[in-house]
Amino acid sequence: MLELVDLSLTLPKETYRTRLPQLQGRLLDLQRAFWREKLSAIVVLEGWDASGIGGSIRRLTARLEPRGYRIRWTHRPRTYETQMPWLWRFWLRIPAFGKIAIFDRSWYGDVILRRVEGEIDRVTHLEQCREINAFERTLADDRYEVVKFFLHISEEEQEQRFQELQADPAKSWMLEEEHWARHESYGQFHDALEETLEHTESAWAPWTVLAATDRYWTRIRIFERLIDRLERRLEAEGRELPPEEEAS
User: Fold this and answer.
1) pLDDT (average), residues 101-117
2) Kindly report the CA angle at 85 between 79 and 86, in degrees rounded to 5?
3) Most buried residue, 22, 29, 91, 215, by most Cβ within 10 Å?
């Protein structure tokens, strides 16, 4: 799946600056429509370190109604969480009806990292992929719209971004030894990602894999895909779409 991504895709800065506020306005209209209709969405943003997940989330939420969404950051399980079924801590973060949850990394990061680090073998990894499919199917059956993105960059691009972060005194704190360690294992992560993406692709929660070399192109495509999915959900529920002209 990753091999099919054209990493050279770009978008002119002028086009980005014109399109972004339009798409932000449209997303706000759809958020309000979901609130009125008591529909919910779960937006999963996965990707390589330094692929631009944080910047994409900031643009997504810049004009949203703060009471209607939550950003969920994923951490390694705490001690008490390891005593529970592994998806338990994610069930606790599912949004209420009418709201949107944006996951900055998710249940996928946990599975992939443990596979690469050797904490689980391939059999367990595939079993957890099946559990994820069941988890997402349950959410979809309960009228949650599950929208999943993976932001893809090359090994060379990641190294360049790491070096730029390290050289910037205002941003160097963002880069830790574990980031470099994961970079050294890029090939292993690539293989684990390919297998995970393949086994968690589904009709109810399909993946959108995006080239993230050019941030302008990536952010606009995230907006377009998310807006399309939210509009389709409203139509599937027999609800009227907010007029396009309301976007501002």
Assistant:
1) 93
2) 70
3) 29
